[in-house]
Each structure stands twice: as structure tokens, then as C-alpha cells.
């Protein structure tokens, strides 16, 4: 068992986050299997599913019950679910939200039980509109990170992090389609045709600052059987397995290949959607995560990185932007001072950044 249990500090936050992510993952799994995935189009044209809305409502409900004064930065808003136009999707989401609970009543009680009504659900979703910043307690939520993977039947993650005065203190990632076993090697096919078969797939990664990182099988009851995880102790960067986005529009796959070549890496990249990449390197299934800007004007969102950043750091890694600077979570809803993300074991991170600078510098 990991040492996470030994510390009182933020212990309640840690457990609530773990349980809330487990409950929300039950909902996303049910959408993954049983529902037409009700895709709407947001102004940025990214697909939003009923799973996003439902998972966000359930997580915020648990946070409001336990920490009513905390701020919340969440990806979605309820606008498209309101009024006559939103009725159909609203009813689908509400049916899911009111049916989803942890099977263990004690754990469900810790989360505050069910949401009271469809209207209450919409208001909960809209509680995620904080502007963020460098002061106070702020939860960051991405209810379904990797929506495109989710719709394609690939990897996705339910993401929750607590940021205090700009530092990530608690991070939890629910990955329903990743293998439970930490020792399962990453295959090239892991991002495609995913399965969430009970007993084989479905894992939660979690970390509390200073206490290490853990993995835990996703459980319908909410049980927490935690095992400590660590990055692979790799001596030679040429032996690394690196992860990148499936979506070529999110991370430059050409630049990643050039950087890998420069580092002497011969293994093919593992492409998967979502912060499942952070979890996979944190448990040593992969080694590096390269996210290389495709467009100079794109700013990363805090909910896409907060949980994963802490989990990798607590597992012995280092997470920076392409310049080698730490990610700055103090600046609102986005990481406006950072470009891209490079995550690697501490001993190899400097070498990777050198190669990143060589390759990206040569392009200018
Ligand atoms: P991934 O699954 O790692 O490819 O990342 C998914 C996330 O990429 C989504 O949650 C979006 O917020 C984010 N995203 C959208 N457009 C871009 C872009 N042009 N560059 C980088 N990330 C993006
Ligand atoms: Mg996301």
C-alpha cells in the first residue's frame, strides 16, 4: 500500500476526488456502451457528448457537497441543455445522472448521494465557470478528456485536480479503457478499438503532492485498492517508448518523429487520446509524453494537464513545456505562458528538452 494513506493533509480531498472520478467513470462507461453518443457541436466544433455533461454534473455535485466554498474550473457549460432546444439531450443526461451511483452506499454517501433534479443538474454543470488563477482552492475538471477518442472507441480519461495557490496538490485520472495491470506493456493498438471489459480494463491513477502516485482498479462499488506506481527506471533514452496524441491536429507527429530520431529512439510511437498518456508513463508502461505545438496560437487548457502533471511528478517524472519551463497553473483557465508539454523521467528530461530545442529551433 502506498504512503498516501499516512498523511492527514488533504486526505479527505484525495478520497472524495477518487470516489467522484470512479462514479463519473461509471456514467461514461455506460454511455460508451449503451447510448447513441448524442454529439452536439460547440463553437470550437469539438464533440460534446452526453457523457461529458453527465460526468461533470456528478463530479461537481460531489465537490459542492464536500467543499462548498471551493472554486471550480470545468470544461463544459449547460447552455445547450437549457430550454426547449436542449430538452432531448437534457433528458438523456438527467436519466443517466440520476441512475448512476457507487454500489457501496457508504461511499455514495460521502459523495452526497443523488442530484436532486434536472434543474439542479444544470446549475451544477454551470458551477464550473470559475476564471481560475493563482490564489485559493480551485478544482479543475475535464469530464471526458479525449472526447474524440471516446467517440472513436479509443482511450479517454475522466480528470479531476485540486490546485491550491497555483500548485496542483491532488490529481485523479479515471481511464476506463486502459489495462488494470501496471505491468501490461503499451501496444501500438492501445489507442484503437478499446475495451473496458470488467476485470481486465479500467484503472484510476491518483496522486497527492508529496505522497507518491498510485493506481487502483476502477470499481463500481468505489473500492480503493491502491498500488504505488513509479516511472520506468530508464538509463538510456534511446530505449524509451514515447506517447503522443492520435489527433495530428493536437500535437505535431512529424516533429515528434524527428525528436525521437535525434534521441536514437527506434520503437514506434504509441498514439492514444487523453491524459491516459500521463497515467501510462507514470506507471512505466511508456516513458515519454511529447506534445508539440501544431499552431503557434493554441493555448493549452489547465483541465487537460493538471491531474496528469502531478501524477507524473509524483511517480518520479518531470513535466515542462517545450522550453523546459514548469507548467504555470496560476494564470486562469489556460496555460497561457506555456507551449506544448514534455514529460519524461527526471534523469532523462534534460536530454529530451535538448533534442526538442534542436529540432524545433532548426525549423525557424
Ligand atoms: P489529446 O487527446 O492528447 O490529443 O488531447 C485532447 C485535448 O486536446 C482536448 O481536450 C483539447 O482541449 C485539446 N486540443 C484541442 N485543440 C488543440 C490543439 N490545436 N493543440 C493542442 N491541443 C488541442
Ligand atoms: Mg480535454
From TrEMBL:
It comes from Friedmanniomyces endolithicus. Its cofactor is Mg(2+). PROSITE patterns: IMP_1, IMP_2. Mg(2+) binds at residues 75, 142, 144-145, 304. Converts adenosine 3'-phosphate 5'-phosphosulfate (PAPS) to adenosine 5'-phosphosulfate (APS) and 3'(2')-phosphoadenosine 5'-phosphate (PAP) to AMP. Coiled coil: none annotated. It is an enzyme of class 3 (hydrolase). Keywords: Hydrolase, Magnesium, Metal-binding. It catalyses: adenosine 3',5'-bisphosphate + H2O = AMP + phosphate; adenosine 2',5'-bisphosphate + H2O = AMP + phosphate; 3'-phosphoadenylyl sulfate + H2O = adenosine 5'-phosphosulfate + phosphate. One of its GO terms (biological process) is tRNA decay. The gene is MET22_1. CDD domains: PAP_phosphatase (cd01517). Belongs to the inositol monophosphatase superfamily. InterPro entries: DPNP (IPR006239), Inositol_monoP_metal-BS (IPR020583), Inositol_monoP_superfamily (IPR051090), Inositol_monophosphatase-like (IPR000760), Inositol_monophosphatase_CS (IPR020550). This is 3'(2'),5'-bisphosphate nucleotidase. GO terms for molecular function: 3'(2'),5'-bisphosphate nucleotidase activity; metal ion binding. Its EC number is 3.1.3.7.
Amino acid at each position: 500500500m502506498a504512503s498516501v494513506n499516512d498523511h492527514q493533509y488533504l486526505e479527505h480531498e484525495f478520497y472524495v476526488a477518487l470516489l467522484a472520478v470512479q462514479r463519473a467513470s461509471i456514467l461514461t462507461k455506460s454511455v460508451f456502451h449503451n447510448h447513441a453518443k448524442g454529439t452536439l457541436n460547440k463553437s470550437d466544433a469539438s464533440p460534446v457528448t452526453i457523457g461529458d455533461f453527465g460526468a461533470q454534473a456528478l463530479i461537481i455535485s460531489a465537490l459542492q457537497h464536500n467543499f462548498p466554498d471551493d472554486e471550480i474550473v470545468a470544461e463544459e457549460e449547460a447552455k445547450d441543455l437549457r430550454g426547449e432546444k436542449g430538452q432531448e439531450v437534457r433528458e438523456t443526461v438527467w436519466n443517466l445522472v440520476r441512475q448512476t451511483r457507487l454500489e457501496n452506499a457508504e461511499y455514495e454517501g460521502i459523495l452526497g448521494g443523488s442530484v436532486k433534479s434536472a434543474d439542479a443538474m444544470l446549475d451544477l454543470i454551470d458551477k464550473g465557470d470559475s476564471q481560475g488563477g493563482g490564489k485559493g482552492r480551485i478544482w479543475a475538471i475535464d469530464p471526458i478528456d479525449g472526447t474524440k477518442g471516446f467517440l472513436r472507441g479509443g482511450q479517454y480519461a475522466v480528470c479531476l485536480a485540486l490546485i491550491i495557490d497555483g500548485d496542483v496538490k491532488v490529481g485523479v485520472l479515471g481511464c476506463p479503457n486502459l489495462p488494470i495491470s501496471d505491468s501490461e506493456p503499451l501496444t501500438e493498438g492501445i489507442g484503437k478499438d478499446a475495451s473496458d471489459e470488467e476485470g481486465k480494463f479500467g484503472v484510476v491513477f491518483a496522486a497527492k503532492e508529496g505522497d507518491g502516485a498510485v493506481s487502483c482498479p476502477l470499481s463500481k462499488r468505489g473500492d480503493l485498492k491502491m498500488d504505488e506506481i513509479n516511472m520506468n527506471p530508464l538509463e538510456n533514452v534511446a530505449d524509451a517508448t514515447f506517447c503522443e496524441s492520435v489527433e495530428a491536429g493536437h500535437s505535431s507527429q512529424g516533429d515528434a518523429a524527428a525528436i525521437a530520431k535525434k534521441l536514437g529512439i527506434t520503437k514506434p510511437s504509441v498514439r492514444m487520446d487523453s491524459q491516459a498518456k500521463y497515467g501510462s508513463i507514470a506507471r512505466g508502461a511508456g516513458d515519454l509524453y511529447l506534445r508539440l505545438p501544431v499552431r503557434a496560437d493554441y493555448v493549452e487548457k489547465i483541465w487537460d494537464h493538471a491531474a496528469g502533471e502531478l501524477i507524473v511528478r509524483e511517480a518520479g517524472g518531470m513535466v515542462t513545456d517545450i522550453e523546459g519551463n514548469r507548467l504555470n497553473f496560476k494564470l486562469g483557465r489556460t496555460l497561457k505562458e506555456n507551449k506544448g508539454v514534455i514529460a519524461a523521467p527526471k534523469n532523462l528530461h534534460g536530454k529530451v528538452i535538448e533534442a526538442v530545442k534542436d529540432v524545433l529551433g532548426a525549423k525557424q
